[in-house]
Amino acid sequence: MRITPLRTPFGPAPWMVLAAGHLVLPLPCARADVLHSSGPIITNPTGGTGAIAGQPISQADPFTIPGSSFNFSTTGVAATHATSTAAADDFTIPSTVGGWNLDAVTLYAFQTSQTTATIHTIRVNLWTAPPYSANSPPPVPNPLPQPVLVESLVLPAGPGTFVCHRQSASSTSSVRPVFAYTVSLNGLPDGGYVPQGTYWLQWSFDGAASPSANVFMPLVSPRTAVTGHNARLLNSLDGSSTGERVWFEGREGYVEGQAEGRAYALPFELHGTALPPPSCYVNCDASTQPPVINVQDFGCFLTRYAAGDPYANCDISSTPPILNVQDFACFLEKYAAGCP
Fold first, then answer.
1. pLDDT at position 10, please?
2. In this structure, how many other beta carbons lie within 10 angstroms of the beta carbon of residue 147?
């Protein structure tokens, strides 16, 4: 199997692997309360051959860079705490619910030359906008996004569950097991309650230190299974192992001046409870039933607006939400109308 360094839009990324091959779909989580799934990874549930005959496989999606006849595909991208790398991808809580109470997340990982579940810790954070850091590529967002938690949650990974073997686009016999890890999200603010809006889940892994500490994830496959390809990576822009880590959009097959590459999605599932929509939007402070609407609700709205809370996007102007004077006008109009 041919292995070459994967290039990002800013040069080769040392903590990622690019190989000729196909990709995998994620198995559905055993839990019944799946609120969000970013897409599949198992491409053939019985396609393994050789030592893994009949086992599920995940083959990477191949593609050809313009001007080249060689088929490229991404075996995995890294999110390894030991190398200060991480990944993030987005999810949206629809306006048809009153928010989600998040309980757990399922993530997928493999390590080179490991045949057992070797991940022992997963670090998780949330963002209310695409992750961005000092010296990330322009355009510079205003205001600068910040993670919800000052320090990421450090969560025990648990035993891990075998899902499939990650393959190149043409291979079916590589022994490269991917394991699913479902971890509790205890420690999120507000008991795990997240209101309507679009967010970015950030994560990185701690695993076996030998023969390599690098932990890799498959990409969502087939690519046609999802329409959103918005993964972000925390890595070095210059492609060096010691370069400054910054956030940027993940793209496979980027060749400077020749190919823009293609964005991708990373597999994860969120578990929890979807809350019913509030009985009255302007009852911001949720005071009593039936709702009491008063000046405290104005103060509540202003506080949430100042904090960039998606709740304050009263006119549902975009995703991610844009907060502006129209939201004040929207809130005043709804306030004047009262509650049903």
1. 26
2. 16
Say if residue 178's pLDDT is above 90.
Answer: yes
Radius of gyration of the chain (CA): 22
The closest alpha carbon to 265, from 88, 42, 94, 35, belongs to 88
Residue 235 has pLDDT above 60, yes or no: yes
Backbone angles phi, psi at 303, to 5 degrees: -65, -45
pLDDT number for residue 288? 61
What is the identity of the amino acid at 163? V
Lowest-pLDDT range of 10-24, 68-82, 163-177, 249-263: 10-24
Nearest alpha carbon to residue 59 among 72, 41, 77? 41
Comparing 225 with 290, which gets the higher pLDDT? 225
Q: What are phi and psi of 52, to 5 degrees?
A: -115, 30
When pLDDT is averaged across residues 270-295 and rounded to a whole number, the result is 79
Structure tokens, 115: 């045949």
- pLDDT score for 242: 84
